[in-house]
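Hi team,

As requested, here is the filled-out complex form for the flavin-adenine dinucleotide run. I kept the field names the same as last time so the parser does not choke. Let me know if anything looks off before we queue the next batch.

— J.
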Amino acid sequence: MTTSYDVVVIGGGPGGYEAAIRAAQLGMSVACIERRLGKDGKPALGGTCLNVGCIPSKALLDSSYRYEEASHHLAVHGIDVQGVSLDVPRLVARKDQVVRQLTGGIAQLFKGYGVTWLQGQGRLLAGRRVQFTDLAGQEQELTAQHVILAAGSEPVRIPVAVVDDERIVDSTGALDFQEVPRRLGIIGAGVIGLELGSVWRRLGAEVVILEAQPEFLPMIDRQIAKETQKLLAKQGLDIRMKARVTAAKVVDAQVVVGYEDESGSKSESFDRLIVAVGRRPVTEGLLAADCGVELDERRFVHVDSQCRTSVPGVFAIGDLVRGPMLAHKAMEEGVMAVEVIAGHSPQVNYDTIIGVIYTHPEVAWVGLSEDQAKAQGLQVKVGSFSFAVNGRALASNDAQGLAKFIVDAKTDRVLGLHVLGPQAGDLVHQAMIAIEFGASIEDLQLMTFAHPTLSEVIHEAALSVDGRAIHAVQKRRQ
Ligand code: FAD
Ligand code: AMP
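And here is what came back:
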């Protein structure tokens, strides 16, 4: 039997489920195929993001932050707390509850919008046909006017550290430790390594992060990266750069990790090891050999700027395609693909995709760094301002970090904002809107920011681009 839909989406992560909902809003008949089972063994929507990514990691970051506050940082407020204790299984169970609530919410939205959720595996065949295999192994063929591939990504595996899901885990396993490891090793000082490292360090683990590259967080502004590295080191994260892991073996309930750095071969023992060396697109089982969809040289599905693949009527979005692996990027691409199908001409502005690292303080950025702008041959002016003198930040004993604007010196246009500081992930949206609207730095300088707020740091950083920050003595004034 063949069933026909206007749109079939393969993958129910943030990219896929948003595409499905938008298509239903536009009156199309939609099926979304998702094979994932949640931690409770039941079918679950929401993809990596809701099940084993953004949401569970943020739940653990929040719980661990509260634990650290209660244990070490309340005395300064005149609050003495005694006998703080930790129940890791309960902390992890709360995280699971948040995940269940959100994934269940997507299922409710599907019901409300009339999106058909097909629980099982999808595979694109030639001629815009899709093979659907349900969880019991039953096969069915679907036809679709349009197909959206949204199969997402999975952790990169490296042969030198094979995940056994017990002592050596990937990011998914690291969300479910039932006790705090005494010594925790992490391979990779990327966003995931730093966030998970922060969680378990706050809960009491001694954390060592081994990173092969010489440059810390190469995607962000050098000044902000340097400050971030210093701050995280001060918090107790032992981040070792130029340290390439060459072996990891479990010996007597310990993971013995061999690595090489500038001074030679070394070894460390850990109770647990997290392998956080990046993610790769999930194309296995997704594409029939004759379906015609081309991959690029890194095995991402090749798409144009509106997410069209090499096959007419077939789109691909999110972690499956080029660009940063971020939930909000996947979501916007999903909506864009559907709008294209509906005959509109939408475009994701890839220049305003925000990056956030949810450490404390947070690191967030949008647009170009100073070096990136210069590499593009632009003449830049920059301005930065510290949280250390911001009234609101000091009032909440959270006054670390800085905000830095990168501006085109010729046109005065905002090119980028990079922030290390409390609520940086929210603050940076102000520059996202500025860049989207082609604002000049003067536009931001002339606006009135509420007092006392963290946003005043953004205003002062904008003013400091022209030597006009009020709460700093600036030599150069305009
Ligand atoms: P996914 O979310 O990966 O969803 C794809 C879905 O497709 C999966 O559920 C999979 O089961 C399903 N699927 C695959 N193949 C098939 C098939 N053939 N048939 C049926 N179903 C299939 N991003 C952020 O923006 N902010 C964060 O704070 C953040 N934190 C993260 C923390 C961690 C620990 C991790 C691992 C990731 C994090 N990310 C974060 C990244 C984010 O989760 C991804 O960018 C996002 O989930 C990508 O969405 P997607 O829809 O492209 O794919
Ligand atoms: P990201 O892709 O941002 O999640 O970061 C993953 C990081 O892991 C990258 O910075 C890689 O350089 C790093 N990495 C990959 N393989 C190794 C290895 N064998 N030893 C140490 N670091 C590694």
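Two things worth flagging: The chain has 13 helices and 21 strands. Residues 10-16, 33-36, 47-49, 52-54, 57, 121-122, 150-153, 171, 192, 282, 285-286, 318-320, 325-328, 330, 358 surround flavin-adenine dinucleotide (ligand 1) (CB under 6 Å).

Thanks,
J.
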